[in-house]
Amino acid sequence: DDVPAILASCAVHAQPSVRPDSLPRTVLEAMAAGVPSIGSDIGGIPEMIVHGQTGLVVPPGDGHALARGLISLLADEKMRACMGEAARERARSLFSPAAHAREIMDIYSSVLRRGSL
Prior knowledge:
Number of helices: 6
Radius of gyration: 16 Å
Strand content: 5-15%
């Protein structure tokens, strides 16, 4: 129950995955909270995090790249705020329940227009 409060106190979220995950929930939660993420370029992470806009994407298993990214985000409050707001908007527009429902309806509509189920 305290995840939103914990995320609100974070400056940055890190998702240094080395195995693919199609849609890591922690990235979505951070985005929804307006917290920029740094994550590995693996699985669904690069679809969620837009490098340089909503956070940073680094090669999986590259601790030095992860550290450099964290340092750059932590050193620039204005950049973090801009990325955090962009992340919140991206989460709302692409990954919210309403966005998911729109996508499902679009698929159904497309199938029905073709006349095949």
